Automatic annotation (TrEMBL):
Protein name as catalogued: N-ethylmaleimide reductase
All copies of domain NADH:flavin oxidoreductase/NADH oxidase N-terminal, residue ranges: 9-340
UniProt cross-references to InterPro entries, sorted A to Z: Aldolase_TIM, OxRdtase_FMN_N, Oye-like
PANTHER family attached to this UniProt entry: NADH OXIDOREDUCTASE-RELATED (PTHR22893), NADPH DEHYDROGENASE 2-RELATED (PTHR22893:SF91)
Species for this entry: Acidiphilium rubrum
Necessary cofactors: FMN
Length: 371
């Protein structure tokens, strides 16, 4: 292992015009503590500000519209009340010298009619995912979604643009387009979940059309790609037990080639199966890193040792950590010192109040309320 002080993980890096104080990113983490109106709680400002020693924080996935919702108690970014609540969060993060992007989310078929007044969730094709949705009444089986009509798609692209503008108004430093984990964008990309016959299905070019229209709309709002990142997960089968695309190297390779035209700040790649495994299943993530012209954030089951080796060998510019940030608000300091990490019981992951969320102490035993 490198000397602690020499570790590249703790060196500053500038990507685009964004100067980051280290190469550790807080990965997006849904924590399901918002109101039914999608407004984050006041104590979300404490939670995020406590973690502001990360080089960059990516917010929990945030719905771009009512139609985008797939889980109860998740936040949104399309109403004035939501923007006001997020502004409290970004103000607290900035006051603690942090930087924060908002993750823009549409869940597509990973949803439930209970979240849509009894209407079916929407998707590229009417194919039911396996598994269960998190509703206000607990877990319920996923249903067969309704396939979107071709002429409904421009309105969803407009919802992304509106949400991107709201994120700007809320004071975020940028946005991350959530094109991972088999939510709506990735449902369009993969031929396993997209069996459309219109211009949004069939060929790779057609399957990429909707995600690229979204990227075009979002980068337009943000004045180009310099403050826009994109998350992808070419090898994940989660959630919904979604099969991979039949040719992920060709499909995601074509995606990256197109994304380069927008000058995006970064891609944030979940390598392997989200949370579960780093098994690559024939996917060459380094080929994607090399093909992409912006920065590369690597994620999934990274330890300090693997993160250090990956950054030192030039295999990633930044590393994001998800689960370790839940119970370790001062994760950066703990990694720097080689200190033990606390582990959050799963019962605290989703839902509840400030307990198990913004009340984790730092190494000195203190709970910092920063907002
Ligand atoms: C509680 C929890 C919530 C998550 N929520 C999101 C999310 O909102 N958006 C997202 O892209 N990934 C989400 N993920 C995936 C993480 O960002 C990350 O990819 C995953 O946990 C693997 O990284 P890790 O091994 O460092 O935890 C979530 C994971 C967990 C455990």
């Amino acid at each position: 292992m490198l000397q602690k002080t020499d570790s590249p993980l703790f060196q500053p890096i500038t990507i685009g015009d964004l100067a980051l104080k280290n190469r550790i990113v807080m990965a997006p983490l849904t924590r399901s503590r918002s109101s039914d109106a999608g407004v984050p709680p006041d104590f979300a400002a404490d939670y995020y500000a406590q973690r502001a020693s990360a080089g960059l924080i990516i917010s929990e996935a945030t719905n771009i519209s009512a139609q985008a919702r797939g889980y109860a108690l998740t936040p949104g970014i399309w109403t004035e009340a939501q923007v006001a609540a997020w502004r409290r969060v970004t103000t607290a993060v900035h006051a603690n010298d942090g930087k924060m992007f908002l993750q823009l989310w549409h869940t597509g078929r990973i949803s439930h009619p209970d979240l849509h007044g009894g209407e079916l969730p929407v998707a590229p094709s009417a194919i039911a995912p396996k598994g269960q949705a998190f509703t206000n009444e607990g877990l319920k089986d996923h249903v067969t979604p309704r396939a979107l009509e071709t002429d409904e798609i421009p309105a969803i692209v407009a919802d992304y643009a509106h949400a991107a503008q709201c994120a700007k108004d809320a004071g975020f430093d940028g946005v991350e387009v959530h094109s991972a984990n088999n939510y709506l964008l990735e449902q369009f990309i993969r031929d396993s979940s997209n069996q459309r016959t219109d211009r949004y299905g069939g060929s790779v070019e057609n399957r990429l059309r909707f995600p690229l229209e979204v990227v075009a709309a979002v980068t337009k709002v943000w004045g180009g790609g310099r403050r826009v990142g994109l998350r992808m997960s070419p090898g994940t089968t989660m959630p919904g037990e979604t099969p991979l695309d039949s040719n992920p190297m060709a499909t995601y390779g074509a995606y990256i080639k197109e994304l380069n035209k927008f000058g995006l700040l970064y891609i944030h790649d979940i390598e392997g199966v989200t949370q579960l495994s780093r098994a690559a299943d024939g996917i060459d993530y380094m080929a994607f890193r090399k093909a992409f012209t912006g920065a590369y954030i690597a994620n999934n089951n990274y330890t300090r040792e693997l993160a250090e080796a990956t950054v030192s060998e030039g295999k990633a510019d930044l590393i994001s950590f998800g689960r370790p940030f839940i119970a370790n608000p001062d994760l950066v300091e703990r990694l720097r010192n080689g200190s033990p990490l606390a582990e959050a019981p799963k019962a605290y992951w989703y839902g509840g109040d400030a307990t198990g969320y913004s009340d984790w102490p730092g190494m000195d035993g203190q709970i910092r309320l920063k907002s």
